[in-house]
Design brief:
globular; single chain; mainly alpha
Length: 223
């Protein structure tokens, strides 16, 4: 889409289309290059805008990716809850597998989860952070309903579980994607084999241990 088309657009529908085009470009680049390496100039070039024009729609690059992080929370929550809702009973290990599997299936979301507290939230307005946090709180509340039904988790236990899962998923994803040079190093030296991380298996183990440590059980056991 050309820059001149963007300049002529005036309606609310056109503004929304511009914002969606910007988000689509950032989403594509983030998947290809990793969120940290994408610049505002990169995004503007894909959309066909000058960087200064793009800033009329988003205050910073970080706000664009924070919007995508909120989108990721909604999508992950819906997928996770969809799986849990189909279960009449579940053990802590089974719930751990579902949480880990749905996170590992979303590599860019895992990347965003790591970047959000480190970078994204630190270069946007307070109102943008407030809006983002309210999205995450709402999704955690929805997930909590299913975790309470299946395992009897309290509100605090739900918050701790989801915080553990998402923060660890973000960290593990960064470790699992070191780049070609470091990956070659890690695989060439057996002493460094521990640095080669698989996100899902490790996340399952940690979450299963965490949930078991809470002393929770299946819905059948709690009935």
């Amino acid at each position: 889409m050309s820059e001149s088309v963007f300049q002529r657009a005036r309606s609310a529908e056109a503004k929304q289309a511009r914002e969606e085009a910007i988000l689509d470009a950032a989403r594509t680049l983030g998947r290809q290059c990793g969120v940290r390496d994408v610049t505002l100039t990169d995004i503007a070039a894909v959309v066909g805008m000058h960087k200064s024009a793009l800033l009329r729609y988003f205050e910073t690059k970080e706000q664009i990716f924070l919007e995508l992080t909120a989108e990721g929370w909604r999508q992950w929550s819906a997928d996770l809850r969809g799986d849990l809702e189909r279960r009449e009973h579940a053990t802590p290990a089974e719930v751990a597998e579902v949480i880990a599997g749905t996170l590992a299936a979303r590599p860019m979301f895992c990347d965003l989860l790591a970047q959000a507290p480190l970078n994204l939230e630190r270069n946007v307005s307070a109102e943008s952070v407030r809006s983002f946090k309210l999205v995450t709180l709402h999704e955690i509340e929805l997930i909590g309903g299913e975790l309470h039904r299946l395992l009897g988790l309290t509100e605090l236990q739900t918050v701790d579980t989801i915080a553990t899962a998402t923060s660890l998923a973000g960290a593990l994803w960064q470790m699992a994607t070191p780049g070609p040079r470091l990956r070659e190093l890690y695989t060439s030296d057996p002493r460094l084999s521990h640095a080669v991380v698989e996100v899902e298996p490790r996340l399952i183990r940690v979450l299963a241990a965490f949930l078991t440590g809470l002393g929770v059980g299946s819905s059948a056991a709690n009935a």
